[in-house]
């Protein structure tokens, strides 16, 4: 009986230790952070435009809030030789959801320096 409790407790602590915890500092995993986007528009404009049906097919819901959405975004890298800045013609934004590849970033705020 004691052996069963020890095994159960051991399994639960192992699962708890292995559970992923999302980062809130904008780093890691590409889920959130600063990116360079070719376009930044309101969510309602994107949903009613030509990308609306594609977003529906992909299951990407922009939600009822009219937040800013970045399109064709790429992460900022220092490797490109631009000291981490966006190239000309793109906008630097900090987005809460960059998990949809380079297609769309959701919940963006312009970065001002």
TrEMBL record:
Coarse class of the protein's main subcellular location: secreted
UniProt GO MF annotations: structural constituent of cell wall
InterPro entries linked: Class_I_Hydrophobin (IPR001338)
Keyword Signal annotated: yes
Signal peptide from the UniProt entry: 1-18
Record localization: Secreted, Cell wall
Keywords, alphabetical: Cell wall, Disulfide bond, Secreted, Signal
GO cellular component: fungal-type cell wall
Superkingdom of the organism of origin: Eukaryota
Subunit structure: Self-assembles to form functional amyloid fibrils called rodlets. Self-assembly into fibrillar rodlets occurs spontaneously at hydrophobic:hydrophilic interfaces and the rodlets further associate laterally to form amphipathic monolayers.
Record-stated family: Belongs to the fungal hydrophobin family.
Protein name as catalogued: Hydrophobin
Native organism: Marasmius oreades (fairy-ring Marasmius)
């Amino acid at each position: 009986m004691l052996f069963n409790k020890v095994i159960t407790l051991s399994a639960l602590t192992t699962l708890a230790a292995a559970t992923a915890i999302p980062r809130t500092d904008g780093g890691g995993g590409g889920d959130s952070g600063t990116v360079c986007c070719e376009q930044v528009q309101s969510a309602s404009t994107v949903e009613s435009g030509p990308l609306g049906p594609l977003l529906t097919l992909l299951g990407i819901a922009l939600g009822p809030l009219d937040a800013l959405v970045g399109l064709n975004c790429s992460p900022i890298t220092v490797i490109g030789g631009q000291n981490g800045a966006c190239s000309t013609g793109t906008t630097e934004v900090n987005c809460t959801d960059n998990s949809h590849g380079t297609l769309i970033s959701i919940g963006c705020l312009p970065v001002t320096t």
